[in-house]
Task: structure prediction
Amino acid sequence: MKLETQAVTKRYGAHAALDGASFSTGDEARVIALLGPSGGGKSTLLRVLGSLLVPDEGSISIDARTLPHDEDGALIERRANGFVFQGYNLFPHLTALQNITLPLHEVHGMTETQATQRALELLHRLGLEGHEHKRPSQLSGGQQQRAAIARALAPKPRLLLLDEPTSALDPVMTGEVLDVIRELAEAGQSIILATHEISFARKVADWVVFLAAGKVQESSSASDFFAKPQTELAQQYLEGLSKYR
Amino acid sequence: MLLALATAVFYALFSSVAYRWNWDGVWLYRQQFGYGWLMTMCLSLVAMIVSIALGFLLMLGRRSPWEPVRMFCGGVVEIVRGSPLLVQLLIGHYIIANALRIDQPVFTGIILLGCFEGAYLAEIFRGAVESISASQLEAARAVGFDKVQTYRFVIIPQALRRALPGTTGQLVSLIKDSSLLSVIGIEELVQKVKIMNAATYKPLEGFLPLALAYLIVTLPLSYLARRLERRFAYET
Result:
């Protein structure tokens, strides 16, 4: 997959979360890590790439296909993607199973039986056997995040987008969730991942986009980026993060 | 315990007043009383349906992306909530309905009562809908729901539980407010009691069964609402 953005800007009031972000990846990028300090625009870029947000200006293309700028087009586009958020964002009034089957049935047109079958298959694969009929509040953080990953994977998304999926989890649960993401990456799933887990990004990512202050500072293959970051900001960022690990 | 205490206090209060109670008139008029009660309940039930539908529409209007719709619905809510029901009934029946040649006080009364309570419900619904967090709305977008699906599967089920206590209170109010419909000549419960009191020369007797007749409905309604709240209960 080749991602390309040109001067993408997204403002919230007077604040520009993305301020003319431009980059392009190599032709065969499959697991793309968005790195950079908090408030640098990672989450916004992730949402724009997944068509969850429409940019104010600029253009984005995936494999030379330009993403639509209108809300209806964006809806069709994002239905082909799967999203996982920092705060899990499961629907609290539905069970883990219903969280997965509802969109399959209502958005992707599966029958109840097909949807349930697909949901159970994923919940079991992600180690949630026995938790199918629990509401999110009855699950641990790690279990909730795995259920959220199952929900995102259920419609077989072209692109899986994860926004700091482990930032709200303790180290043990973080490990559980990262294992799942790693397995998905190794199984060939296209992934865009915004994260602060540098050592994880180093293991699974094949491309890195480094953002700060709403601009893309660096975009290079993961091996190049981790071996020798080009900008001083990226060097400082990596040094700061590896100080205590 | 509390009930017994309250009964004792009431009994003491009532017996301290030099008034000779005479229940013959009430008994004589029991059928009329029953008719009035049924009228009140039917009126209230239909007005509830009207008020919930209208409250929902006004809530949607106040959240509309179009400024004129927002302003119109906001204006309606503020004017209706800000003026007395009595005035709305008098103007609505004697002027508006009259001008439109609608000579159906029951119909007019139901619509006016439904509008009045609907304006309050609109704000209760809006509060509940706006309390749904932005992350839930984003999750709804992320799984590919369109606007209607987002309301249907994410916002309404969660807002329902938050709106329930306020809505029940408002529906109880609606039943009681229906007593004002007597001013436009509808023979509901209060009007029946007034007629009975006048006919039997007894100014007070009718009002005690009247209060009971309302409580028979409003108390179970509150109980039912609490049961429903528990059924919808889940931690967020």
Summary: The radius of gyration of chain B is 22 Å. Residues 30-62 of chain B form the longest helix (33 residues). The mean pLDDT of chain B is 89.
